[in-house]
Each structure stands twice: as structure tokens, then as C-alpha cells.
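Quick note —
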Amino acid sequence: MNLTLFFGLLGGLLVLAFLANLLARKTGIPDVLVLMGTGVLLGPGLHLMNLTKYQGLREGFGTLALILILLEAGLDLDLRQMLRFFPAGIVLAVMSYLLCLVLVGVAVHELMGLPWKASLIVAAVLGGVSASVSLPVMQTMRLRPGLKMILTVEGAMADILSVLTVTGLLNAPAGTVPVAMLIRGFAVKLSISLALGVVAGVGWAFLLPRLSDRRFWQVLTFGAVLVLFAVTDAAGGGDLLAVLIFGLALSNLPLARHYLSAGLGMQAGAEQAGAEQAGLLAFHAELSFLVRTFFFVLVGMDIRFEGFVSEWLPILVIFAAILVARLLSIVMSGLLWPDAHRLERELAFWMHPRGLITVVLALRVVHVRGPSWNFLVDLAFAMLLLSGAGMTIGAIRGKRMRELKELKDGTAEVSTGGS
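Predicted structure written out below.
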């Protein structure tokens, strides 16, 4: 591909991303599906681009997109609301993942004849919700804060659960399932993420106004977030969760707000601090839009269709098991958010897409276990497409949910589309 065509393609993708986002706000159709469809057209369809030699490119863009998405979510969330709905988000994440682990594991064992441990590995890969897909779609919806908090927490926790479980099962001795180790690892990651995220958020709010040159302070803040991500990962914590907590601490904690406003000058005060926070949020929202555009196009370029026909029955049964697990988890976690409208629960049911982490973990298992596990990559892509289609149904359905007027907050009209 020559340089002129390359830059023309990049510009065209950005224009397409803008139009897809506009379409999402008008119709409820998630823009990520338009971007992935474009990738399918450019890759498997027209064979204009081949990513075989650049497998790490998709993973790098995806991780960067997740960092930006979760940072943006943290900066935009209210801490008091977050603390109120944090338990419900964790319970939903854990219950949804555990139920997927059991139901998908049974389905794989019965249909594909795999041993129980191998079946659980397949279920562990396919069981996690992808924040890189769900959070951008939620940003196009006008959701009540409670539901947005719960789904954001679930998205941040899903990667931790998936990575811990798959890694633990791959490293465990034959015939064993390290339940105690997984629970202990989850608690350790949660504690490390919380500690580093809060310390970094408050510390950065203290340092930022005192830096000599604040012309590029948004870029410098993004650099600090990347350092936090790397340090948290090296310390054994949940790197993405730490990023979310950093954003929350930077924009919500009274101590951080005091430092942020105090460093802006005598006449700036809280109003100027709010403007600085809005500027930071806008900068990272733009950067997130840029990165995730390329990520979802790259995902579409790498989708494989060869195994879909031969594995159609396991694919459908596994997806049905995921839907059942999601429904049960919504019912069980609903005890912690009893004031939710039934239509909000329906939206939460559809917001369970698979994405980056599913594909990355499938490729990791194939690398460890060998080519005989290539079927898992086909299953991962199939779940990505089917769950994306289900999310589209939920988004379109949500667009027409006028009954949300009856919600207790007294909102005159709440819909899931429009800006």
C-alpha cells in the first residue's frame, strides 16, 4: 500500500467513525459494529489489508483504547454514586462470570467432548464482558447514573476476572481447579488497584497545578496514567481498574479538588477547577475516539469465518448459555439495586458484549496449548459477533423505551439515544 492510499484510508476511517457515532446517537445502532464491519470489508472481504505480520498491533490499540475509555469514565463519574453502586457492579461482574464459567463449561463438555478442565478454560475465555465495546456504546445513551455506574464497574472488573481465571487454569496442575488461588488473587488485585489508583489520583492533583509549564498538561496527565498502568501491572494489581480509580480520585475526592483549585490562583476557585476538569475530560474523549476507531477496524480485519460453519451447533449453544447466565446474574445482583426500572434491567441484560480480552485470551491459550486449540479463536470471534448483534438489539430497543418516564428520579424523558 502506497503512502497516499494509506493516509487517504486513515482519513476516510475517521470520517466514517464520526458518521457511525452520529448514527449511533440517532438510531441506537452501536458505532463499533459499523467499524468492525468496515474492518471485515477491508480485510477478509476485499483483502486490501493483511494483519498477519502485525498481530500485536490490534492488542496494543485495544489496550490503549481501554485505558482511555476507563479514564474518561472515571473522570465523568460521581464518587458518591460510584460508592453506592460499586457493590452491585462487583456482584454483577462476579455472578455473570461464574455463571458463564459453569454453564458454558457444561455445554462445551457435553457438545465437544473436552475434559472438564479444558472445558472450563474455553468457558473462562468466553465468559468475560468487554469494556472496550460496552462503554463506548453506553456513552451514546442517556442512562441513569446508577445503571451507568454498575455497568462501568462490571466492565472494569471483567478483565481482571478473565485474565486471573484463564492464567490460573493454564498454570494449574492437571486435573485441578485452583479456586482458592483465584479468590485470593482477585482480592490482592483489587486491593493493589485501589491503593495505587487513589494515591496516584490525589498525588497528581497535588502536583499538576505546581508544574512550571502547564501548556501541555493534558498530555502530561495521559503520560502519568500510562505510568500508573505499567506500575500497577508490575505490582500484580488490576491495571485497568487502577486507571478508573485514578480518574475518580482526580475528579471527585475533596482533597484532590482542593489541591486542583488551590493551584489555579487566587481568583480561579472551584469554577476554574471545574473548567480544567472539563478540558481534561474533553481531551481524553477525543483521544479515545481516535484510538478505538482504529482498534475496532483492526478487530474486523482479523475476524475469521472458516470455523463458523463446522462449529455452528456449539456456537449457538454456547451463546444461549451466555444469555441464560446473563439473565440469572441480572436477577441475582438486582437485590443490590432494587430501585431499577425493569427496562433498565433489560438494557443491562443486553450489555454483555465480548471483545478485545476474549480474542487476546483465546490467542494466548492457542499459544500455550498448541494448534489443536485453534477452534477457540473461531469461538471467540463468533461470540464477539453474536453478542455485538445482541447489544444492537438492546440499543435499538432502548431507543424506543418511553416507559422510562416512570423512573423514580422524575426525569421528564429518558431515552437511550440522542445527545
